[in-house]
Write a structure and sequence with these properties.
Elements: H1 4-21, E1 25-33, E2 36-44, E3 47-56, H2 70-87, E4 93-101, E5 109-117
Parallel strand pairs: 3-4
Antiparallel strand pairs: 1-2, 2-3, 4-5
Length: 121
């Protein structure tokens, strides 16, 4: 089984390849703001998309997307706001989660959850 950090990097790489195959343009990877990191920032059809990638080597304790906490969502929202301010972007946005399961001896399973959460009002 790969080391946890390597597993995460492998999941991000698979997620980027998946997104590109679906017509997304990758704008940034591992974009940081203070304590927050956005794994992938992409664009498709004029929508700016902030994507969290969660990767696991087992679903014994649940699917990877179940591990996106409220705190992680809040950090992503802060980082997204900073990114949009820096780029002077005021268009449509979306927050997605990509769940990647890499089981030994099997091909990866990728599940893309669009509009996984919404900015707080």
């Amino acid at each position: 089984m790969p080391h946890k950090h390597q597993l995460g990097k492998d999941g991000e790489s698979l997620a980027m390849k998946y997104l590109q195959s679906q017509g997304y343009s990758i704008l940034n990877i591992n974009w940081r703001f203070k304590r927050a990191e956005i794994d992938i920032i992409a664009e498709q059809d004029g929508i700016l998309i902030f994507i969290e990638v969660k990767t696991r080597s087992s679903t014994k304790y649940g699917t990877p997307d179940a591990f996106v906490s409220i705190q992680k969502e809040a950090l992503m929202l802060d980082a997204a706001g900073s990114y949009m301010s820096e780029k002077e972007y005021d268009g449509e946005i979306r927050f997605d989660v990509i769940s990647v399961v890499i089981l030994p001896g099997k091909g990866p399973e990728i599940h893309h959850i669009k509009d996984a959460f919404f900015p707080f009002e």
